[in-house]
From TrEMBL:
Hydrolyzes ribosome-free peptidyl-tRNAs (with 1 or more amino acids incorporated), which drop off the ribosome during protein synthesis, or as a result of ribosome stalling. This is Peptidyl-tRNA hydrolase. It comes from Thermomonospora curvata (strain ATCC 19995 / DSM 43183 / JCM 3096 / KCTC 9072 / NBRC 15933 / NCIMB 10081 / Henssen B9). Keywords: Cytoplasm, Hydrolase, RNA-binding, tRNA-binding. GO terms for cellular component: cytoplasm. The record marks N25 as: Discriminates between blocked and unblocked aminoacyl-tRNA. TRNA binds at Y30, F80, N82, N128.
Amino acid sequence: MGLWRGRIRAGVMEADLWLVVGLGNPGPDYAGNRHNAGFMVVDVLAGRMGGRFKAHKARAEVLEGRLAGRRVVLAKPRSFMNDSGGPVARLRDFFKVPLERIVIVHDELDIPYGAVRLKQGGGAGGHNGLRSISKSLGAPDYLRVRFGVGRPPGRMDAAAFVLRDFSAAERRDLELHLQVAADAVEMLLTQGLQAAQNVYHARPAH
């Protein structure tokens, strides 16, 4: 699929453009971490679009194209997780995407492994990437697709837990769960938040 052209006309964005950002930490040392679930889901979406990410001056990797019939910019910040807000705000400004068409895909401790939940707005819930984004965008009212990674075992620190790779048992069905999360993103774009919530909030994690 070719990239679409002429996305900005006289400084005004086409009305249906979406910005879908996966969160994670850059580099091979972090690639398999639970904290990189957002990157993983966006990589699945990039595969469906048939394109490759390219470096963007907003300090992110981006892929522009069509997904489920919608014009979409997929992005992965090249900053570390805690500084995700800067690249997201710069992408918003460059592509002129309104807050209600910004989708952040991220890992979520408070959801069972493999479950997918969607929401709009709300607090950061201890997620430093979301905190940075809400601060940089000036509001928390963007859309969120939350990929459950579960709670750490015993007394393990949550920060250490999300910076560990998925376990061998989790990896057996990780690809399936990532595909489901990608499906949820597509449904959010095409049918809206409530319809996607009705489907994915009722779906068991396993």
